Amino acid sequence: MVARTLRVVLWLACALIAAAFLFVAVRRLGAPIPLDGVEASVLEHATRIAGQQPLYPQAPSPDAPAILPGFPLVASVLAGIFGPAYWEIRLLALLATLGIAILVLMVGRVESESWTLGAAAAGFVFAALGIIAGVPGIGRPEPLALLLALGGFAVLRFTSGIWGAVAAVLLIAAACFTQGFAVWFAATALLYLACEDRKRFAVFALGLLLLLGYGGYSLSQQLGPSFLQEAWDAPVLALRFEPGALLHFVGDQMLGKLGVLTLTAVLSLALPTPPWFSRGGIWMWMAIGALASGMLATQSAALGPHGPTPIAVVIALAGPLSIQRVTRHLAAWPGSSRMGGQTVVLAALALQFLMLLSSASPTLLSL
Predict the structure, then answer these.
(1) What's the whole-model pTM score?
(2) Angle at the Cα of 135 (from 130 to 141), degrees rounded to 5?
């Protein structure tokens, strides 16, 4: 009875959070002014591509956000058809977010063999993006980069051949040219393959070398020195040592708002089989990359509240899987029961939803 009630509560919470996120995002879709400094820069770059002008100006403003070409290139398609407008980049970001939620739902369902855990993971995606990583409905490149990276990791997880590695490296490299944090995912995907599949590791490493190395060089030749400034100089110059920001990230966001998911992921390290082993361990590798990205983002003056976006999304998937893994191990002890373990999983997920909702800003639904 308790497990059934908790399951109903979780499904209702997921539905309400998804509906609230979509309500806010759709409401902001037609706002005629930029909601974020990045929106104006993305639209400017997309307009340049649609008008067959150089992507980067010869003398970019030092105060302008660094924009990689991936997201503006996709947005330029809509800008060329309908004319440049902010709703286009917001729609693309919203569709990418929906893609992330669907992908997380399906991966969570397959890995946990539970639609409820898959739905909870998707609900955490909406909650994390709406409450932790800024405001819903803003046209930023992070959702597209995360969708590409998640797709690459999913291909690595559910395929075993060389062509799967080729498809994965294409997706992850595209994510790297969309937002710089994806480089951490490329690195952890390499480490995962080095431990699990040496043949695919060689293919993936060669693909990264060609796509990021030669591809980056080719773009610098075609787009001019401003590309290197946007891709490398600006992010490096924005770094500063800020221990207070790092402490806030770990204490308030990871152990506070995402406390249940984070602590359970930490507890899973004590299991007899480390959570990064086997094919299913790829999500822990991705979480490690997202955590490194989030910690580095706290030391950047350019990223602002959107720095935790990667870890907020990835822990939404890895966290519920860790909760199930830990409780299954505990339920296997003498005197324990599988049904009791399921109830603990559902209760932990419900508590995490409660923690996220309690930290939501009262102004979240305002334009």
Answers:
(1) 0.92
(2) 100
